[in-house]
UniProtKB/TrEMBL annotation, chain A:
Keyword Manganese listed: yes
Cofactor(s) demanded: Mn(2+); Ca(2+)
Xref: CDD domains: Mn_catalase
Pfam family, one: Mn_catalase
InterPro entries linked: Ferritin-like (IPR012347), Ferritin-like_SF (IPR009078), Mn_catalase (IPR007760), Mn_catalase_dom (IPR039377)
Protein name: Spore coat protein CotJC
Residues annotated for Ca(2+) binding in this entry: D59
Coiled coil: none
Family of this protein: Belongs to the manganese catalase family.
Cofactor-binding details, from the entry: Binds 2 manganese ions per subunit. Binds 1 Ca(2+) ion per subunit.
TrEMBL record, chain B:
Keywords assigned by UniProt, alphabetized: Capsid protein, Virion
Cited InterPro entries: Spore_coat_CotJA
Organism: Geobacillus thermocatenulatus
Name of protein: Spore coat protein CotJA
Top-level taxonomic group: Bacteria
Length: 189, 76
């Protein structure tokens, strides 16, 4: 089970009314390398990994849900007061027609979220390598969104999320080392 | 130590339609270099760590848009 804390992991501030940024950010909400995909991937894989690394996937998977909430808050703030005209200018009219201002799990191009974005192979090294790749992809996506965004407050939050991806990738790399079981032994290959 | 930004010069054709980007930059994050985290690495003060996204100085590698901070950005 989880215990919910009614606050964000990092404060989300948005300084400009720019619904176009919401269109980019939705990639990290319902996209292939987004926070939903990350949370579902780790929280599902954790059952069939060796016990030594289950806790790691549990912790990171949980944190991804907190990231999902930050992205949702950003998207919501960027769109909640935008006029249909502004949403149209931002290229969000297909979204508006289907969802009005509601959030939805799709990527920046409008493709709905699908479980085919994630995998659970049951082979520990395979799954951890997918997880490392997923973190690097998420890190890169944040870089491209930061490049496209001219909102310094929003970018501050995105920088925090990107830093967390670096840490997650580091911990997954360490998990691989743990499973290799050669750590601490002086061996020359 | 290591650097977390690398550069290369892509091929430029005399017939490129747009003004060429002469130098491309990419990120090589700290997690590529540290391996299994050794004990007793330097930490940030706790409040600062909460805002930076990591307790460990070695893993802190912020990314700025080249368009956001003129001259100070990552450039690519
Ligand atoms: Fe992550």
């Amino acid at each position: 089970m989880w215990i919910y804390e009614k606050k964000l992991q990092y404060p989300v501030r948005v300084s400009t009314c720019n619904p176009r940024l919401a269109k980019y950010l939705i990639e990290q909400y319902g996209g292939a390398d987004g926070e939903l995909a990350a949370a579902l991937r780790y929280l599902n894989q954790r059952y069939t990994l060796p016990p030594k690394v289950i806790g790691l996937l549990n912790d990171i998977g949980t944190e991804e849900l907190a990231h999902l909430e930050m992205i949702a808050t950003m998207v919501y703030k960027l769109t909640k007061d935008a006029t249909p005209e502004q949403l149209k200018e931002a290229g969000l009219e297909p979204h508006y027609v289907d969802h009005e201002r509601a959030l939805f799990y799709h990527n920046a191009a409008g493709n709905p979220f699908t479980a085919t974005y994630i995998q659970a192979k049951g082979d520990p090294i395979t799954d951890l390598y997918e997880d490392i790749a997923a973190e690097e992809k998420a890190r890169a996506t944040y870089q491209w969104i930061i490049n496209m965004s001219d909102d310094p407050d929003l970018n501050d939050g995105l920088r925090f999320l990107r830093e967390r991806e670096i840490i997650h990738a580091q911990r997954f790399r360490e998990a691989v080392e743990i499973l290799k079981e050669e750590r601490g032994q002086k061996k020359i290959f | 130590m290591f650097t977390t930004r690398k550069q290369y010069e892509p091929y430029i054709s005399p017939f490129d339609p747009c003004p060429p980007i002469r130098v491309k930059t990419y990120v090589t994050a700290p997690n590529l270099y540290v391996g299994f985290q050794p004990p007793n690495l330097p930490q940030f003060p706790l409040r600062e760590a909460l805002m930076k996204g990591t307790l460990w100085q070695v893993f802190y590698d912020p990314y700025y848009s080249p368009y956001e901070t003129k001259g100070k950005g990552d450039g690519s």
